[in-house]
Amino acid sequence: MKNCIVAQSGGPTVAINASLSGVIEKAYTSGSYDHIYGSLHGILGILNNDIICFDDKLEDETFLQALATTPAMYLGSCRYKLPKMADDIELYEKIFAFFEANDITGFFYIGGNDSMDTVLQLSTYAKLHEKSVTIMGVPKTIDNDLCLTDHTPGFGSAAKYIATTLQEIAYDTSIYPLPSVTIVEIMGRDAGWLTGAATLARTDYGLGPDLIYLPETAFDTERFLEDVKEIMQKKPNVLIAISEGIRDKDGKYISASTKTLDSFGHSQLSGAGKTLETLIAHRLGIKVRSIELNLPQRCAAHLSSLTDIEESKELGRIAVAHALKGASGYMSIIRRESNQPYRVSYDIADISLIANEVRSVPRDFINASGNNVTEKMAEYLRPIIVGQPSLTYENGMPVYLPLPHLYPSL
């Protein structure tokens, strides 16, 4: 008997289920696995023996297609950091005892940076203890901050949502002749890829942000106020896009709470937009509002990119294909071959070169003043937001799959 199991971890995206469908499809059509299992809530499903089997679902020919366009994470998620082997070897023994008891020869983990740390730890244990289980990572993150891949599943759709939303906000805020400032806070703790996507709102027929600030350059509040005043000399309404993780020259987040850390030791960020709203109100005395895009950035399936969905599927397939050749301790990646025409290839990369690393926006994607992005950013972004997947609607609402951890009978 040879079985495989797949899990999802970290924050959701609208494309992570497309990667899941790619894993399941390739595992099924390869004929190399007798059963395909899913672990509910990431690695916790394995630790708690909380799993489902996809065998019956695959009898429905529409299942994988519907799965690929369902938002959030079909298998549920977790934010659980594996301890180092030296600190809790029994935990690793429990995980691999589960693999052995269920005849698991392939484990596929779909997630972002912290999830790839789990892939690294488990693949290292498997190698050290000569376990015959292949451990493979499949990338996912709207932050686009995983190394060695041109871009990550979920980012293209999130970028499309952000660009569309900024364009619509720009239209809305431009209708009044009264001076006003609108600040839009966009996800991105350490990398400003998502915020940079706001530049795509600047089309021949649309409006976009006047200023864009990313965490890759030091943020100066006095310079910021001068930037705003300079724009207001030319037009009454100023639209600003900022990353949640903007920080000063000393590396201090302008909105970080030093008292609250998540399970991975990251400072809890809250209110960069609100912080700057208060600053402008007090110092410039003009109408100002801040908008935090928050969760819709990662769950707006109605604005997803077909390119993103199709690439995400392929990355799932690639991970399985290489696992069947014996690869373990790798992540599937995208290589961009050209922009015009847009062409990519797929491969795998050593997980030890990816886990716990952060891929930042290149400096030449940001202007010299640090208050905008360059055309290189737009050229990089344009191809990956193209296309709209076909969604099924019922009574005017999109139809998505029910989540098994909420509806186990389905």
UniProtKB/TrEMBL annotation:
Where in the chain is the site Important for catalytic activity and substrate specificity?
Answer: 114
Cofactors required: Mg(2+)
Relate the assembly described in the record: Homodimer.
User: Which residues are involved in binding Mg(2+)?
Assistant: 113
Q: Which residues bind diphosphate?
A: 11
Function statement: Catalyzes the phosphorylation of D-fructose 6-phosphate, the first committing step of glycolysis. Uses inorganic phosphate (PPi) as phosphoryl donor instead of ATP like common ATP-dependent phosphofructokinases (ATP-PFKs), which renders the reaction reversible, and can thus function both in glycolysis and gluconeogenesis. Consistently, PPi-PFK can replace the enzymes of both the forward (ATP-PFK) and reverse (fructose-bisphosphatase (FBPase)) reactions.
User: Where is this protein chiefly located?
Assistant: cytoplasm
Keyword Magnesium, does the record have it? yes
Q: In which pathway does it act?
A: Carbohydrate degradation; glycolysis; D-glyceraldehyde 3-phosphate and glycerone phosphate from D-glucose: step 3/4
What family does this chain come from, according to its entry? Belongs to the phosphofructokinase type A (PFKA) family. PPi-dependent PFK group II subfamily. Clade 'B2' sub-subfamily.
State the name under which the record lists this protein.
Answer: Pyrophosphate--fructose 6-phosphate 1-phosphotransferase
What are the Phosphofructokinase domain coordinates in residue numbering? Answer: 4-288
Q: Which InterPro entries match?
A: ATP_PFK, PFKA, Phosphofructokinase_dom, PKF_sf, PPi-PFK
The residues that the entry says bind substrate are 141-143, 187-189, 244
Keywords assigned: Cytoplasm, Glycolysis, Kinase, Magnesium, Metal-binding, Transferase
Catalytic activity, per the record?
beta-D-fructose 6-phosphate + diphosphate = beta-D-fructose 1,6-bisphosphate + phosphate + H(+)
Enzyme active site: 143 (proton acceptor)
Which segment of the chain is annotated as a signal peptide?
none
Source organism: Roseburia lenta
Enzyme class comes to: transferase
Q: Where in the cell is it found?
A: Cytoplasm
